[in-house]
Amino acid sequence: MTRPIHHPVTISSAVRRFAALVCLTLAMSVFASEGHDHGGAPAASAISASPRITLHSDLFELTGIVDSGQMTVYLDRYATNEPLAGANIAFESGSDKGLASPQADGTYLIKFEGLEKPGELHLSFTVTAGQDTDLLAGELTLGDPHAHSDEADSQPWWRWSAYAVGLLALLGVAAFSVRKRLARRALYRNPQTPQ
């Protein structure tokens, strides 16, 4: 009686396959966490991005970015996107009123107490540049930085838990695969002889 031809699958080839699978999975999870993690992305964006307001009319485009309780204002001509230095910007938000301070870099600075508190602000700007004057108005939402940081602090724990579960699942699949291959190998070595 001829014995079946056997092509043993060595443990080292199974280990190589498993290692390749683990590397591929970890690489995919790293890329997913860099911008494709749908659960954590909004909180990270909220922390890194400063609150801003962008308004425009036929004449002007105004962008205000709030950082550390003050607003830096960028003013351009709307049609040409040409920066406007030396304009006069009067602002109003509820009972807070004033003039934006021109800065050496061509921006304008606005400070008032309302920019330091979370909430919704209605802002209006009266912009005068040469012979042109226009009114721009809109809403600015200031978030609570502590709420975002608490949420962000809890995310790494969930991410590492997901990695651990994924790794345990891979180890289980690899162990099952190696066990199955070893059982086949043993069957080829000791075939049952027919009676």
Q: Please indicate the percent range of residues in DSSP E strands (runs of 2 or more).
A: 25-35%
The second-level CATH architecture of the largest domain is Sandwich
What name is given to the CATH topology of the largest domain? Answer: Immunoglobulin-like
Task: Return Rg in Å.
Answer: 32 Å
**Shape assignment:** rod-shaped
Q: How far apart are the termini?
A: 12 Å
User: What order do the helices and strands follow?
Assistant: HHEEEEEEEEEH
User: Which secondary-structure class do the elements indicate?
Assistant: alpha+beta
Estimate the mean pLDDT confidence: 77
Number of helices: 3
Poorly predicted residue ranges: 33-48
CATH class of the largest domain: Mainly Beta
Query: Roughly what percent helix?
Result: 25-40%
Describe this structure in words.
The protein has 195 residues and is of the alpha+beta class. The chain has two domains: 11-18 and 28-43 and 147-189; 52-142, Immunoglobulin-like (Sandwich). It contains three helices and nine strands. The strands form two sheets. It has a five-stranded antiparallel β-sheet with strand order 1-2-3-7-6, with no helix packed on it. The protein has a four-stranded antiparallel β-sheet with strand order 5-4-8-9, with no helix packed on it. A hairpin with a 2-residue loop joins β4 and β5 (96-99). The chain is rod-shaped, with a radius of gyration of 32 Å. The relative contact order is 0.16. The model is unreliable at 33-48 (pLDDT under 50).
